[in-house]
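fyi for ur records
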Amino acid sequence: MADWIEVALEANLIDRKPTRVMFGDEPVLLLEASADVFAIGNQCTHQGAGLDKGVVRIAGSVRTVTCPAHGSMFNLETGKPMRPPATKSVPVYDVRIEDGRVYIRPRANS
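which gave:
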């Protein structure tokens, strides 16, 4: 697991409540929603606002977070913007849970 970094304890995650963690120097939004855990870059690509303060929507297969500053919406699975003003994706991370510890690594091709 050399490229995986531990960022949280699973027991500290609260369902549908965004948590800000660090991956090295990069802030990451970590979110548990039912049985899934998502990790995306925490800074909106429009003007850098923290996405962990935004509104999370889990509706069927579309799972999003909305930037609290200007309303950009990002897909939690792909990091792609779904509503402007942001036009660039945020980084996406793979998530792995082992022995109650949450590990992430940058997703290839994200």
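The chain has one domain: 5-106. thats all i got for now
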